[in-house]
Amino acid sequence: METSVWTKVFLVTEDLFNKIATSKYNPLYYHGALPQFIMYVLFLSGLLLFAYYVPTIDNAYVSKNLVNAFTSVKYITNDIPFGAVVRAVHRYAGDAMVVAIVLHMVRVWFTDRYRQYRWVQWESGIVLLIMVLFIGQTGYYLIWDERSLILTRMTVSALETIPVIGVGLGHWFLNGRAISNLTLSNFLFIHIGLSFTLLFGLWIHYVRMTRPVITPPPVVNYVLMGLLLLVVYLFPITATKMADLQSLTTNSMDIDLFFLFPYWVLSQTGMFGFWAFTIIGTLAVCLIPLPMGAKPIEAAEVVNTKCTGCTFCSRDCPYQAIEMVPAPAGSRFKLIATVKSYRCSGCGVCVGACAFDAIDLPNLLDTDVTEKIKQLSKAQS
Amino acid sequence: MAIGIAACLYGSIMMPWAEMNMTKENLPHTLTLLRLEPVADALDSVFGQTAEAHKASLDAKEAEGNRGEYVYAFAIGLAILGGALAVAAIGSADEQEKMLMPEKK
To answer: What does pTM read for this prediction?
Structure first.
Protein backbone atom coordinates (compact mmCIF):
# COMPACT_ATOMS: atom_id res chain seq x y z
CA MET A 1 0.00 0.00 0.00
CA GLU A 2 1.29 3.49 -0.87
CA THR A 3 2.12 5.82 1.96
CA SER A 4 0.44 9.23 1.74
CA VAL A 5 2.41 12.46 2.03
CA TRP A 6 0.77 13.25 5.36
CA THR A 7 1.56 9.84 6.74
CA LYS A 8 5.19 10.43 5.78
CA VAL A 9 5.10 13.82 7.52
CA PHE A 10 3.87 12.12 10.68
CA LEU A 11 6.50 9.40 10.43
CA VAL A 12 9.25 12.02 10.03
CA THR A 13 7.86 13.98 13.00
CA GLU A 14 7.75 10.81 15.08
CA ASP A 15 11.31 10.04 14.13
CA LEU A 16 12.35 13.54 15.20
CA PHE A 17 10.65 13.08 18.58
CA ASN A 18 12.33 9.68 18.91
CA LYS A 19 15.70 11.38 18.50
CA ILE A 20 14.85 14.02 21.11
CA ALA A 21 12.85 12.02 23.66
CA THR A 22 13.63 8.40 22.61
CA SER A 23 10.83 6.07 21.55
CA LYS A 24 10.07 5.16 25.14
CA TYR A 25 8.98 8.70 25.99
CA ASN A 26 7.75 9.89 22.59
CA PRO A 27 4.48 11.75 23.36
CA LEU A 28 3.18 11.01 19.86
CA TYR A 29 2.95 7.34 20.82
CA TYR A 30 0.60 8.29 23.66
CA HIS A 31 -1.61 10.74 21.76
CA GLY A 32 -4.73 8.83 22.85
CA ALA A 33 -3.64 8.48 26.47
CA LEU A 34 -2.69 12.14 27.00
CA PRO A 35 -6.28 13.46 27.01
CA GLN A 36 -7.14 10.85 29.64
CA PHE A 37 -4.34 12.02 31.95
CA ILE A 38 -5.41 15.63 31.41
CA MET A 39 -8.96 14.59 32.29
CA TYR A 40 -7.75 13.37 35.71
CA VAL A 41 -6.01 16.76 36.24
CA LEU A 42 -9.28 18.50 35.33
CA PHE A 43 -11.33 16.29 37.66
CA LEU A 44 -9.04 16.92 40.64
CA SER A 45 -8.61 20.67 40.10
CA GLY A 46 -12.35 20.96 39.40
CA LEU A 47 -13.13 19.18 42.66
CA LEU A 48 -11.12 21.78 44.60
CA LEU A 49 -12.91 24.64 42.81
CA PHE A 50 -16.31 23.01 43.36
CA ALA A 51 -15.72 22.98 47.12
CA TYR A 52 -15.89 26.81 47.24
CA TYR A 53 -18.04 27.66 44.23
CA VAL A 54 -21.51 29.18 44.84
CA PRO A 55 -23.73 28.70 41.75
CA THR A 56 -25.98 31.74 42.08
CA ILE A 57 -26.10 35.12 40.41
CA ASP A 58 -27.32 36.94 43.52
CA ASN A 59 -27.45 35.70 47.08
CA ALA A 60 -27.70 39.03 48.86
CA TYR A 61 -30.66 37.92 50.98
CA VAL A 62 -28.58 35.30 52.76
CA SER A 63 -25.63 37.46 53.61
CA LYS A 64 -24.89 41.12 54.07
CA ASN A 65 -22.09 40.74 51.60
CA LEU A 66 -22.91 39.69 48.10
CA VAL A 67 -22.14 36.00 47.78
CA ASN A 68 -22.61 34.71 44.27
CA ALA A 69 -20.80 32.84 41.53
CA PHE A 70 -18.56 35.76 40.61
CA THR A 71 -17.57 36.67 44.17
CA SER A 72 -16.99 33.01 45.04
CA VAL A 73 -14.61 32.73 42.08
CA LYS A 74 -12.91 35.91 43.34
CA TYR A 75 -12.69 34.34 46.81
CA ILE A 76 -11.13 31.18 45.37
CA THR A 77 -8.61 33.23 43.40
CA ASN A 78 -7.60 35.72 46.09
CA ASP A 79 -8.22 34.05 49.46
CA ILE A 80 -7.94 30.29 49.14
CA PRO A 81 -4.27 29.19 49.29
CA PHE A 82 -3.14 28.41 45.75
CA GLY A 83 -6.68 29.03 44.52
CA ALA A 84 -5.42 31.17 41.64
CA VAL A 85 -3.02 28.42 40.56
CA VAL A 86 -5.67 25.69 40.80
CA ARG A 87 -8.07 27.83 38.78
CA ALA A 88 -5.43 28.53 36.15
CA VAL A 89 -4.43 24.84 36.01
CA HIS A 90 -8.11 23.93 35.50
CA ARG A 91 -8.41 26.43 32.69
CA TYR A 92 -5.21 25.58 30.82
CA ALA A 93 -5.65 21.83 31.32
CA GLY A 94 -8.93 22.25 29.44
CA ASP A 95 -7.07 23.93 26.57
CA ALA A 96 -4.43 21.20 26.67
CA MET A 97 -7.17 18.56 26.47
CA VAL A 98 -8.57 20.08 23.27
CA VAL A 99 -5.06 20.26 21.77
CA ALA A 100 -4.36 16.63 22.75
CA ILE A 101 -7.69 15.38 21.36
CA VAL A 102 -7.20 17.22 18.05
CA LEU A 103 -3.64 15.85 17.80
CA HIS A 104 -5.03 12.35 18.48
CA MET A 105 -7.72 12.82 15.86
CA VAL A 106 -5.37 14.17 13.19
CA ARG A 107 -2.83 11.41 13.76
CA VAL A 108 -5.50 8.72 13.66
CA TRP A 109 -6.75 10.21 10.40
CA PHE A 110 -3.40 10.47 8.68
CA THR A 111 -2.18 7.09 9.83
CA ASP A 112 -5.34 5.46 8.43
CA ARG A 113 -6.65 4.21 11.75
CA TYR A 114 -10.28 5.24 11.36
CA ARG A 115 -11.33 2.72 8.72
CA GLN A 116 -13.62 -0.30 8.76
CA TYR A 117 -14.61 -1.59 12.21
CA ARG A 118 -12.90 1.43 13.77
CA TRP A 119 -15.86 3.62 12.87
CA VAL A 120 -17.04 3.14 16.47
CA GLN A 121 -13.84 4.73 17.78
CA TRP A 122 -14.04 7.56 15.24
CA GLU A 123 -17.68 8.45 15.84
CA SER A 124 -17.44 8.07 19.63
CA GLY A 125 -14.31 10.25 19.49
CA ILE A 126 -16.23 13.00 17.68
CA VAL A 127 -18.98 12.83 20.31
CA LEU A 128 -16.36 13.02 23.07
CA LEU A 129 -14.74 16.06 21.45
CA ILE A 130 -18.10 17.84 21.18
CA MET A 131 -18.80 17.00 24.82
CA VAL A 132 -15.40 18.37 25.89
CA LEU A 133 -16.01 21.58 23.93
CA PHE A 134 -19.43 22.06 25.54
CA ILE A 135 -18.06 21.30 29.01
CA GLY A 136 -15.33 23.91 28.45
CA GLN A 137 -17.88 26.48 27.29
CA THR A 138 -20.06 25.95 30.37
CA GLY A 139 -16.91 26.49 32.43
CA TYR A 140 -16.72 29.99 30.99
CA TYR A 141 -20.39 30.65 31.87
CA LEU A 142 -19.77 29.62 35.48
CA ILE A 143 -17.36 32.49 36.23
CA TRP A 144 -20.31 34.85 35.80
CA ASP A 145 -18.34 37.85 34.59
CA GLU A 146 -19.25 40.11 31.66
CA ARG A 147 -18.04 37.52 29.18
CA SER A 148 -20.24 34.84 30.78
CA LEU A 149 -23.29 37.04 30.33
CA ILE A 150 -22.48 37.76 26.68
CA LEU A 151 -21.89 34.05 25.99
CA THR A 152 -25.13 33.09 27.73
CA ARG A 153 -27.13 35.60 25.72
CA MET A 154 -25.45 34.53 22.46
CA THR A 155 -26.21 30.86 23.21
CA VAL A 156 -29.88 31.58 23.97
CA SER A 157 -30.17 33.65 20.77
CA ALA A 158 -28.64 30.84 18.73
CA LEU A 159 -30.88 28.18 20.30
CA GLU A 160 -34.02 30.25 19.77
CA THR A 161 -33.45 30.34 16.00
CA ILE A 162 -33.98 26.56 15.83
CA PRO A 163 -37.48 25.96 14.44
CA VAL A 164 -40.17 24.44 16.69
CA ILE A 165 -37.99 23.44 19.64
CA GLY A 166 -35.71 26.49 19.78
CA VAL A 167 -37.61 28.48 22.41
CA GLY A 168 -37.95 25.39 24.59
CA LEU A 169 -34.25 24.71 24.30
CA GLY A 170 -33.53 28.29 25.34
CA HIS A 171 -35.70 27.82 28.44
CA TRP A 172 -33.97 24.51 29.21
CA PHE A 173 -30.60 26.21 28.89
CA LEU A 174 -31.56 29.03 31.26
CA ASN A 175 -33.51 26.69 33.55
CA GLY A 176 -36.44 29.09 33.24
CA ARG A 177 -37.69 31.86 31.03
CA ALA A 178 -34.98 34.32 32.08
CA ILE A 179 -31.58 34.31 33.72
CA SER A 180 -31.97 33.51 37.42
CA ASN A 181 -30.16 31.74 40.24
CA LEU A 182 -31.40 28.47 38.76
CA THR A 183 -29.52 29.25 35.54
CA LEU A 184 -26.13 28.81 37.14
CA SER A 185 -27.30 25.62 38.87
CA ASN A 186 -28.09 24.32 35.41
CA PHE A 187 -24.69 25.39 34.05
CA LEU A 188 -22.95 23.70 36.97
CA PHE A 189 -25.00 20.53 36.49
CA ILE A 190 -24.13 20.44 32.77
CA HIS A 191 -20.46 21.17 33.49
CA ILE A 192 -20.04 18.44 36.11
CA GLY A 193 -22.63 15.95 34.86
CA LEU A 194 -21.29 15.97 31.33
CA SER A 195 -17.73 15.65 32.66
CA PHE A 196 -18.61 12.39 34.40
CA THR A 197 -20.53 11.24 31.33
CA LEU A 198 -17.17 11.41 29.53
CA LEU A 199 -16.25 8.21 31.39
CA PHE A 200 -19.17 6.36 29.77
CA GLY A 201 -18.17 7.80 26.39
CA LEU A 202 -14.62 6.58 26.95
CA TRP A 203 -15.90 3.08 27.71
CA ILE A 204 -17.60 3.02 24.30
CA HIS A 205 -14.44 4.48 22.77
CA TYR A 206 -12.35 1.60 24.15
CA VAL A 207 -14.81 -1.26 23.94
CA ARG A 208 -13.49 -2.76 20.71
CA MET A 209 -9.83 -2.42 21.52
CA THR A 210 -7.86 -5.26 23.05
CA ARG A 211 -5.17 -3.23 24.75
CA PRO A 212 -5.92 0.49 24.62
CA VAL A 213 -2.98 2.60 25.82
CA ILE A 214 -4.67 4.75 28.44
CA THR A 215 -1.71 5.68 30.64
CA PRO A 216 1.33 7.55 29.33
CA PRO A 217 4.68 6.81 31.01
CA PRO A 218 5.14 8.89 34.20
CA VAL A 219 7.85 11.01 32.53
CA VAL A 220 5.42 12.16 29.83
CA ASN A 221 2.89 13.03 32.55
CA TYR A 222 5.56 14.96 34.49
CA VAL A 223 6.53 16.95 31.41
CA LEU A 224 2.91 17.77 30.67
CA MET A 225 2.26 18.84 34.27
CA GLY A 226 5.48 20.87 34.38
CA LEU A 227 4.60 22.67 31.15
CA LEU A 228 1.08 23.32 32.42
CA LEU A 229 2.46 24.99 35.58
CA LEU A 230 4.88 27.09 33.55
CA VAL A 231 1.97 28.24 31.36
CA VAL A 232 0.11 29.21 34.56
CA TYR A 233 3.05 31.45 35.49
CA LEU A 234 3.44 32.88 31.98
CA PHE A 235 -0.29 33.51 31.42
CA PRO A 236 -1.82 34.18 34.85
CA ILE A 237 -5.53 34.55 35.52
CA THR A 238 -6.62 38.17 35.10
CA ALA A 239 -9.35 40.09 36.89
CA THR A 240 -12.71 40.56 35.19
CA LYS A 241 -15.91 42.46 35.99
CA MET A 242 -19.05 40.90 37.40
CA ALA A 243 -21.93 40.35 34.99
CA ASP A 244 -24.54 43.09 35.11
CA LEU A 245 -27.97 41.87 34.09
CA GLN A 246 -29.18 45.44 33.61
CA SER A 247 -26.52 46.03 30.99
CA LEU A 248 -27.92 45.70 27.49
CA THR A 249 -24.81 46.70 25.61
CA THR A 250 -22.60 44.00 24.15
CA ASN A 251 -19.00 44.78 24.80
CA SER A 252 -16.08 43.10 23.10
CA MET A 253 -14.57 40.16 24.97
CA ASP A 254 -11.49 37.98 24.97
CA ILE A 255 -12.01 34.77 23.04
CA ASP A 256 -10.34 31.53 24.07
CA LEU A 257 -10.18 30.02 20.61
CA PHE A 258 -9.84 26.47 21.95
CA PHE A 259 -13.36 26.51 23.36
CA LEU A 260 -15.08 29.66 22.23
CA PHE A 261 -14.41 29.60 18.49
CA PRO A 262 -18.12 28.83 17.76
CA TYR A 263 -18.95 32.18 19.35
CA TRP A 264 -16.33 33.85 17.19
CA VAL A 265 -17.95 32.24 14.14
CA LEU A 266 -21.36 33.44 15.38
CA SER A 267 -20.12 37.00 15.81
CA GLN A 268 -18.47 37.02 12.39
CA THR A 269 -21.06 35.27 10.25
CA GLY A 270 -24.39 35.70 12.02
CA MET A 271 -26.91 32.97 12.83
CA PHE A 272 -27.08 31.41 9.37
CA GLY A 273 -23.31 31.16 9.05
CA PHE A 274 -23.00 29.79 12.57
CA TRP A 275 -25.55 27.02 12.08
CA ALA A 276 -24.19 26.20 8.62
CA PHE A 277 -20.68 25.94 10.09
CA THR A 278 -21.86 23.84 13.04
CA ILE A 279 -24.10 21.42 11.15
CA ILE A 280 -21.99 21.01 7.99
CA GLY A 281 -18.74 20.84 9.97
CA THR A 282 -20.05 18.18 12.36
CA LEU A 283 -21.64 16.10 9.61
CA ALA A 284 -18.51 16.32 7.47
CA VAL A 285 -16.24 15.11 10.26
CA CYS A 286 -18.68 12.31 11.11
CA LEU A 287 -19.48 11.13 7.59
CA ILE A 288 -16.39 11.66 5.45
CA PRO A 289 -14.45 8.72 6.95
CA LEU A 290 -17.26 6.31 6.10
CA PRO A 291 -16.94 6.21 2.28
CA MET A 292 -13.17 6.48 2.63
CA GLY A 293 -13.22 3.67 5.14
CA ALA A 294 -14.97 1.35 2.72
CA LYS A 295 -11.68 0.33 1.19
CA PRO A 296 -11.80 -3.49 1.24
CA ILE A 297 -9.37 -5.36 3.41
CA GLU A 298 -8.57 -8.99 2.83
CA ALA A 299 -8.92 -10.62 6.20
CA ALA A 300 -6.50 -13.15 7.66
CA GLU A 301 -7.34 -16.81 7.11
CA VAL A 302 -6.80 -19.70 9.50
CA VAL A 303 -5.29 -22.93 8.16
CA ASN A 304 -7.51 -25.30 10.11
CA THR A 305 -5.24 -28.32 9.67
CA LYS A 306 -2.32 -26.50 11.30
CA CYS A 307 -4.06 -24.58 14.11
CA THR A 308 -3.28 -26.03 17.56
CA GLY A 309 -5.64 -23.74 19.47
CA CYS A 310 -2.76 -22.15 21.41
CA THR A 311 -4.66 -18.76 21.55
CA PHE A 312 -1.52 -16.68 20.84
CA CYS A 313 -3.06 -15.03 17.75
CA SER A 314 -6.29 -14.27 19.61
CA ARG A 315 -4.43 -12.68 22.50
CA ASP A 316 -2.13 -10.67 20.23
CA CYS A 317 -4.83 -9.35 17.88
CA PRO A 318 -5.29 -5.65 18.72
CA TYR A 319 -8.85 -5.57 17.34
CA GLN A 320 -10.52 -8.60 18.89
CA ALA A 321 -10.87 -10.04 15.39
CA ILE A 322 -9.88 -13.60 16.31
CA GLU A 323 -12.14 -15.76 18.42
CA MET A 324 -11.22 -19.16 19.82
CA VAL A 325 -14.03 -21.66 19.33
CA PRO A 326 -14.30 -25.40 20.18
CA ALA A 327 -12.42 -27.50 17.62
CA PRO A 328 -14.44 -29.86 15.40
CA ALA A 329 -15.00 -33.41 16.57
CA GLY A 330 -12.02 -35.63 15.94
CA SER A 331 -9.47 -32.84 16.30
CA ARG A 332 -6.45 -33.43 18.52
CA PHE A 333 -6.93 -29.99 20.02
CA LYS A 334 -9.66 -28.42 22.12
CA LEU A 335 -9.83 -25.02 20.40
CA ILE A 336 -9.44 -23.55 16.94
CA ALA A 337 -9.03 -19.92 15.83
CA THR A 338 -11.65 -18.19 13.69
CA VAL A 339 -11.32 -14.76 12.11
CA LYS A 340 -14.11 -12.17 12.26
CA SER A 341 -13.41 -10.68 8.85
CA TYR A 342 -15.36 -7.46 9.54
CA ARG A 343 -12.96 -6.63 12.36
CA CYS A 344 -9.70 -7.71 10.68
CA SER A 345 -7.44 -4.89 9.51
CA GLY A 346 -4.99 -7.20 7.75
CA CYS A 347 -2.19 -5.94 9.98
CA GLY A 348 -0.42 -9.32 10.16
CA VAL A 349 0.14 -9.35 13.92
CA CYS A 350 -1.52 -12.78 14.13
CA VAL A 351 0.75 -14.12 11.40
CA GLY A 352 3.77 -13.05 13.40
CA ALA A 353 2.31 -14.50 16.60
CA CYS A 354 1.60 -17.96 15.19
CA ALA A 355 4.39 -20.46 15.68
CA PHE A 356 2.70 -23.10 13.49
CA ASP A 357 2.14 -21.28 10.16
CA ALA A 358 -1.54 -21.71 10.85
CA ILE A 359 -2.72 -18.21 9.89
CA ASP A 360 -2.06 -16.29 6.67
CA LEU A 361 -2.96 -13.09 4.95
CA PRO A 362 -4.26 -13.86 1.43
CA ASN A 363 -1.70 -11.71 -0.35
CA LEU A 364 1.10 -12.00 2.13
CA LEU A 365 2.83 -15.26 2.87
CA ASP A 366 3.76 -16.13 6.40
CA THR A 367 7.40 -16.44 5.41
CA ASP A 368 7.33 -12.94 3.85
CA VAL A 369 5.91 -11.43 7.05
CA THR A 370 8.58 -13.11 9.17
CA GLU A 371 11.30 -11.95 6.78
CA LYS A 372 9.97 -8.37 6.84
CA ILE A 373 9.92 -8.31 10.67
CA LYS A 374 13.49 -9.62 10.77
CA GLN A 375 14.61 -6.93 8.31
CA LEU A 376 12.97 -4.16 10.38
CA SER A 377 14.46 -5.61 13.55
CA LYS A 378 17.95 -5.58 12.02
CA ALA A 379 17.47 -2.08 10.61
CA GLN A 380 16.52 -0.74 14.06
CA SER A 381 19.46 -2.37 15.81
CA MET B 1 20.78 14.32 33.41
CA ALA B 2 22.88 16.81 35.38
CA ILE B 3 20.85 19.71 33.98
CA GLY B 4 17.63 17.95 34.96
CA ILE B 5 18.79 17.29 38.51
CA ALA B 6 20.05 20.88 38.86
CA ALA B 7 16.73 22.30 37.60
CA CYS B 8 14.81 19.97 39.92
CA LEU B 9 16.86 21.03 42.94
CA TYR B 10 16.67 24.73 42.04
CA GLY B 11 12.88 24.57 41.64
CA SER B 12 12.44 22.52 44.82
CA ILE B 13 14.47 24.96 46.92
CA MET B 14 12.66 27.90 45.34
CA MET B 15 9.24 26.50 46.26
CA PRO B 16 9.24 27.34 50.01
CA TRP B 17 10.55 30.85 49.24
CA ALA B 18 7.73 31.38 46.70
CA GLU B 19 5.26 29.97 49.21
CA MET B 20 6.36 32.69 51.67
CA ASN B 21 5.21 35.15 48.98
CA MET B 22 8.84 35.79 48.06
CA THR B 23 9.82 37.39 51.35
CA LYS B 24 11.36 35.97 54.51
CA GLU B 25 9.04 38.21 56.55
CA ASN B 26 6.21 35.78 55.90
CA LEU B 27 7.81 32.82 57.64
CA PRO B 28 4.90 31.07 59.38
CA HIS B 29 4.86 31.35 63.15
CA THR B 30 4.97 27.58 63.55
CA LEU B 31 8.29 27.55 61.70
CA THR B 32 9.72 30.45 63.72
CA LEU B 33 9.18 28.26 66.78
CA LEU B 34 11.51 25.76 65.12
CA ARG B 35 14.10 28.55 64.73
CA LEU B 36 14.13 28.30 60.96
CA GLU B 37 14.85 31.99 60.38
CA PRO B 38 18.38 31.22 59.12
CA VAL B 39 16.84 28.97 56.43
CA ALA B 40 14.47 31.76 55.40
CA ASP B 41 17.41 34.20 55.31
CA ALA B 42 19.39 31.83 53.13
CA LEU B 43 16.48 31.35 50.71
CA ASP B 44 15.96 35.09 50.52
CA SER B 45 19.64 35.71 49.82
CA VAL B 46 19.52 33.20 46.93
CA PHE B 47 16.20 34.17 45.32
CA GLY B 48 15.48 37.61 46.79
CA GLN B 49 16.99 39.48 43.86
CA THR B 50 14.53 37.86 41.45
CA ALA B 51 11.44 38.81 43.48
CA GLU B 52 11.02 42.25 41.90
CA ALA B 53 11.38 40.81 38.39
CA HIS B 54 8.72 38.19 39.10
CA LYS B 55 6.38 40.79 40.60
CA ALA B 56 6.92 43.21 37.73
CA SER B 57 6.27 40.48 35.18
CA LEU B 58 3.05 39.38 36.88
CA ASP B 59 1.91 42.98 37.44
CA ALA B 60 2.42 43.71 33.76
CA LYS B 61 0.13 40.79 32.94
CA GLU B 62 -2.44 42.07 35.47
CA ALA B 63 -2.40 38.75 37.30
CA GLU B 64 -5.22 38.20 39.77
CA GLY B 65 -4.35 36.62 43.12
CA ASN B 66 -1.26 36.20 45.20
CA ARG B 67 1.96 36.79 43.22
CA GLY B 68 3.90 34.22 45.26
CA GLU B 69 1.49 31.48 44.19
CA TYR B 70 2.29 32.02 40.53
CA VAL B 71 6.01 31.96 41.30
CA TYR B 72 5.37 28.75 43.25
CA ALA B 73 3.74 27.34 40.09
CA PHE B 74 6.87 28.38 38.17
CA ALA B 75 9.15 26.72 40.75
CA ILE B 76 7.22 23.45 40.92
CA GLY B 77 6.88 23.40 37.13
CA LEU B 78 10.64 23.83 36.79
CA ALA B 79 11.27 21.11 39.40
CA ILE B 80 8.90 18.66 37.70
CA LEU B 81 10.37 19.33 34.25
CA GLY B 82 13.92 18.95 35.59
CA GLY B 83 12.95 15.74 37.37
CA ALA B 84 11.32 14.41 34.20
CA LEU B 85 14.45 15.21 32.21
CA ALA B 86 16.63 13.34 34.72
CA VAL B 87 14.30 10.33 34.88
CA ALA B 88 14.10 10.22 31.07
CA ALA B 89 17.90 10.32 30.81
CA ILE B 90 18.16 7.34 33.16
CA GLY B 91 15.18 5.46 31.72
CA SER B 92 16.14 5.79 28.07
CA ALA B 93 18.98 3.33 28.63
CA ASP B 94 16.53 0.45 28.10
CA GLU B 95 14.73 2.21 25.29
CA GLN B 96 15.00 -0.62 22.77
CA GLU B 97 12.05 -2.96 22.87
CA LYS B 98 12.90 -6.59 23.32
CA MET B 99 11.49 -8.45 20.35
CA LEU B 100 11.15 -12.20 20.48
CA MET B 101 10.56 -13.86 17.16
CA PRO B 102 8.52 -17.03 17.54
CA GLU B 103 10.35 -20.12 16.46
CA LYS B 104 8.39 -21.61 13.55
CA LYS B 105 7.73 -25.30 13.98
So the answer is: 0.84
